[in-house]
Amino acid sequence: MKFRCPWCEGNEIYIRYHDTEWGVPVFDDRKQFEFLVLESAQAGLSWLTILKKRGHYRAAYDNFDPEKVARFGATERQRLVTDKGIVRNGRKIDASIRNAQNFLAVQEEFGSFSTYLWRFVDGSPVVNRWKTLEEVPVATPLAERISKDLKQRGFTFLGPVILYSHLQATGLVNDHLIDCFRYNEIVGAYS
To answer: How confident is the model at residue 191 (pLDDT cuts 50, 70, 90)?
Structure first.
């Protein structure tokens, strides 16, 4: 039997996400944008709620194409606010559109959003060595620094806690517990 990080146990959606995605380094900008939208939508909610709505988000957000989302106007906003398949919070929806516009500006400045983000960790994932969930922080100085930089670039709904979740999800930080079978798989694949 495989040992997994305890936060995912008991739910097949969580287990599949944990076993295939969480902590795997992401260099694809569209995937980075997807996680930014989903993580900011998750604020105040459980990640499981967002994972259950992920398919709806893909449809509602044009498969997370930041160029399309950046052009969303009043009609698209109204469509999103009434879409029962996503979190219908107007502030979060407005943030996702504004963040798409800022995402494109970062791409233009750095060549890609991934290049921008990975430079904060010198191109290599931060590999932590946690033994228990209680040791894993909800935010770190790294997340605070990136969140502050994004805020200066006009991004919203991406505070340090949300940003740290993003770093964990996209593999800039490996926070699998050291006994979790994914810990060594991910370290071995990218070391």
So the answer is: low
